[in-house]
TrEMBL record:
The lineage of its organism: Bacteria, Pseudomonadati, Pseudomonadota, Betaproteobacteria, Burkholderiales. Belongs to the UPF0065 (bug) family. Residues 1-28 form the signal peptide. The keyword DNA-binding does not apply. Keywords: Receptor, Signal. This is Tripartite tricarboxylate transporter family receptor. Transmembrane segments: none annotated. It comes from Bordetella bronchiseptica 00-P-2796. PANTHER family: BLR1237 PROTEIN, TRICARBOXYLATE-BINDING PROTEIN. InterPro entries: BUG, Bug_dom1.
């Protein structure tokens, strides 16, 4: 396990923090029928400026228009999203604290067995807001320009091709391992603490490949500082129309980063339903513009989001167990 994360978890154990005991119930004045009577906080477990933060601010503005109260984004980075997750788990389940959850919700439990919370026990799904596909980006000087050429290069005796990702527990990092399994290669994973330094090292030629989101690499791709050999969506993206999917190139791989809203366990179902309905109406309004062409907006109901998270957790837990992956 990551040393900093292990120390952080250790402090929680020493402090005797208990996450299964539940938060205080909402008072009579906080009846679901009167919600929202004040501003609602959306906790983002990342620093400002990244794609997660952008999606949170995009939806917070539209939820405020729809529901008549401010939705305020609060960034709580740290310990691989655990700091932000903890804040929401411990919040009152009154509808005034929500989590902008991301794909690591589905990957962390398999890699970090001692998490101080349990997603299914401590949080409830509200709405799957959408998904962003992943791409394999390369430095323009890298000799492979198609997926087939990349696989051929990686299978050569003595090949030592490397790929960067935003983190060992990131969906991008694990999708790189899934790709290795499917095409029988051993491209070496170099996890970073975030996407920016990973991309910088690929552009600088220090690492061969980057597994990153469409949002992360789009600007550098358009500036021709990065190439892309495949995209992990089911269909080609309007933002990368010339980049073929993995399936087009003979590899059965579909994967994505996802973003959704969750709430503390015990949040009244009526409030969960109102937020979910508002998210659905926002997506149906299709008012996001061309700047978000790479993002597949969904706005699901809570049950569908819960089923999707279960399927994602099964996918990544199975991969971690099959390959014996560990976070060092």
């Amino acid at each position: 396990m990551n040393t900093n994360l292990a120390k952080w978890l250790g402090r929680l154990v020493v402090a005797g923090v208990a996450f299964g005991s539940g938060a205080p119930a909402a008072t009579a004045a906080d009846q679901p029928s009167s919600w929202p009577r004040k501003s609602v906080t959306i906790v983002v477990p990342f620093s400002p400026g990244g794609s997660t933060d952008q999606i949170a601010r995009l939806f917070s503005a539209k939820l405020a228009e729809k529901l008549g109260q401010p939705f305020v984004v609060v960034n709580r980075p740290g310990a691989g999203t655990i700091v932000g997750m903890q804040e929401v788990v411990r919040a009152r389940p009154d509808g005034y604290t929500l989590l902008l959850a991301v794909s690591t919700v589905s990957t962390q439990p398999a890699l970090y067995p001692n998490l101080p919370y349990d997603i299914k026990r401590d949080l409830v799904p509200v709405s799957l807001l959408g998904k962003i596909p992943l791409l394999i980006y390369t430095n323009p000087a890298f000799p492979a320009h198609t997926l087939g050429e990349l696989v051929e290069q990686a299978r050569k005796p003595g090949a030592d091709i490397t790929y960067a990702s935003p983190g060992a527990a990131s969906t991008a990092g694990l999708t790189g391992e899934l790709f290795n399994e499917k095409v029988k290669t051993e491209i070496r994973h170099i996890p970073y603490n975030s996407g920016s330094p990973a991309m910088t090292d690929v552009m600088g030629g220090n690492v061969d490949l980057l597994w990153g989101t469409a949002a992360q690499g789009l600007e550098q791709y358009r500036a021709k500082r990065l190439n892309a050999v495949a995209i992990s969506s089911e269909r080609r993206s309007p933002s990368f129309p010339e980049v073929p999917t993995f399936r087009e190139q003979g590899v059965d791989l579909v994967a994505e980063e996802w973003f959704g809203l969750m709430a503390p366990k015990g949040t009244p179902p009526e409030i969960v339903a109102r937020v979910s309905q508002a998210a659905s109406e926002i997506v149906k309004g299709n008012s996001f513009g061309d700047d978000y062409n790479y993002f597949e907006f969904i706005g699901s109901d809570p049950a569908s989001f819960g089923a999707y998270m279960d399927a994602q957790a099964a996918l990544w837990t199975g991969l971690v167990h099959r390959l014996g992956l560990q976070v060092k």
